[in-house]
Amino acid sequence: MTNNHNNHAQANKTTTHIDEHNHKIITEYNATNQKITTTRYNPNGTLRSINDHDPQTGQIIKSTEYWSDGSLWLIAHNNPQTGNRTKTIFYDEGRIEEIIKYDIQGNPTTYYPDGSLKEIEERDPITNNSIKEIKFNPDKTIKTITIFNPDETNSVAYYNPDGSLDSIEDYNPSTTNYLRTHFPSDLTSEEIKTTEQTYKDTRQKYQSLPSNK
């Protein structure tokens, strides 16, 4: 894999053109005429993005994107063979805001800047639709567990720090409009037991997941 510095050092040919949005695009090629870097500028001349390409596969292996004021927005890394996203780092005022890593199935795991878990999303391997979403508090306790059910309702269970159920909100799966809120007093003891067991099972499943430190 070739980093951006080496790409520029190996550049043998450069082309420049203006796209339909009036962005200037500079493309660099190596000695064998393989694309290695694409740099895009906004109409006002500020840097918009830099894409590094794998010379052998042509895939974008690294994307660096900037806000309109020139500050860093994100750095994304892709698999050089498939082009699939493997990691994205978001920045805010020069500091890391969050880090997202993708497993081989494309399921994203989001981390806080300190490397602790922030959010995990499980997706259907065939449709790529979301199945479950788990959000964590900064202290590593589970904040919410969302179950996506396109045939019924999407349910968001909110948990207290001790793992007990606080409430459940239902949403229309098609429109995402809010439908209703269930409090523990609205549920049977068996329903409460089920939701709290879901919490325990989820916590056990992910507590061994390594941090991003």
TrEMBL record:
Residues 41-88, 111-155 form the DUF2963 domain. It comes from the Bacteria. Residues 190-204 have a biased composition (Basic and acidic residues). Coiled coil: none annotated. Transmembrane segments: none annotated. InterPro entries: DUF2963. Residues 190-213 are annotated as: Disordered. This is DUF2963 domain-containing protein.
